[in-house]
Amino acid sequence: MLYSSVSAQEQSPYVRIAKITVDSAQLENYKSALKEHAEAAVRKEPGVLTLYAVYDKDHPTNVTVFEIYASVSAYQSHIKTQHFLKYKSTVKDMVKSLVLTDVVPIALEAKQKVSN
């Protein structure tokens, strides 16, 4: 029974929220590094389904990243990629705090982009 529940968990989306506080003097550099990393991850990794990054309008140094991976193993592969490791080394002195929270989806709805 335990094996089947672990297997089911492995096959379900793995969703995580990252709450980041960035050094205000490094904010523009941080945003650039995060954007580069997110674009590479979504483009290159089939297991990276969504990476949404936003900052608080009133407190721009507070960044939230909403991440959806195809599975836990897709996430584990993601954190070993060259572009992730480059991002982490680039921003290590820009990030003042990082809180990672694993979350369980209730509703994940999105409109599909319609091409002309």
Automatic annotation (TrEMBL):
The keyword Oxidoreductase applies. Gene3D superfamilies: 3.30.70.100. The keyword Oxidoreductase applies. GO terms for molecular function: monooxygenase activity. InterPro entries: ABM_dom, AI-2_Isomerase_LsrG, Dimeric_a/b-barrel. Pfam families: ABM (PF03992). Residues 14-104 form the ABM domain. Keywords: Monooxygenase, Oxidoreductase. PANTHER family: ABM DOMAIN-CONTAINING PROTEIN (PTHR33336:SF3), QUINOL MONOOXYGENASE YGIN-RELATED (PTHR33336). This is Antibiotic biosynthesis monooxygenase. It comes from Flavisolibacter ginsenosidimutans.
